[in-house]
Write a structure and sequence with these properties.
213 residues; mainly alpha; single chain; elongated; Endonuclease Iii, domain 2
């Protein structure tokens, strides 16, 4: 795939969704961080259901510590790995209060030093909260990048690095959201919705789903 095709792909994605953002519900950078930690191996829908139970009343680092680990587990027990996530969130809240006055740091190293925060989580926060042109490669973005030919790679880091290098600069800030939404709703894992896809004529995927399927 050449740069002209990539440019056309993102021009169309932008036209269809000029202001994309995460589907996680949050009202502060701190709440975004907690929601992203909870979203590992869970859907955004399930995380939103869980965070609605405590964000309105305990939506700060101090507030979550007041809930305590057991209290937080009770609020998030409907999502996967809730015990480990509760432990990580509590410790993250402690560190944020100890080192950053309860605020979320805006650099990768500090973010990745927090319990439950890996490269993908850090990239989401850096992109969505702080406006860094990062790409958080999850299963959706990995699939779309390889299937379409936008940026092929054998692992998520390889795909991330190629996306950041190959996506035209004017689209880089929002590319993460366009790709994840495209993978979530159109370029799905089984039976991709090629007839409904606005970039299917530019996509390199050979086994496109025919009309009527």
């Amino acid at each position: 795939m050449n740069n002209a095709i990539r440019t056309e792909i993102f021009t169309r994605l932008q036209a269809a969704n000029p202001h994309p953002t995460t589907e996680l519900e949050y009202e502060s950078t701190f709440q975004l961080l907690i929601a992203v930690i909870l979203s590992a191996q869970a859907t955004d829908v399930s995380v939103n259901i869980a965070t609605r139970r405590f964000f309105p009343t305990h939506g700060t680092a101090k507030g979550i510590l007041e809930l305590g680990e057991e209290g937080l587990m009770d609020k998030i027990k409907t999502i996967g790995l809730f015990r480990t996530k509760a432990k990580n969130v509590i410790r993250t809240c402690e560190i944020l209060l100890e080192k950053y006055q309860g605020e979320v740091p805006a650099d990768r190293d500090s973010l990745e030093a927090l319990p439950g925060v890996g490269r993908k989580t850090a990239n989401v926060v850096l992109n969505t909260a702080f406006g860094f042109p990062t790409i958080a490669v999850d299963t959706h973005i990995f699939r779309v990048s390889n299937r379409t030919g936008i940026a092929k790679g054998k692992n998520v880091v390889e795909v991330e690095q190629r996306l950041e290098r190959l996506i035209p600069k004017q689209f880089l800030l929002d590319a993460h959201h366009w790709l994840i939404l495209h993978g979530r709703y159109i370029c799905v894992a089984r039976t991709p919705k090629c007839p409904q896809c606005g970039i299917s004529d530019l996509c390199e995927f050979k086994d496109k789903t025919p009309v009527g399927k």
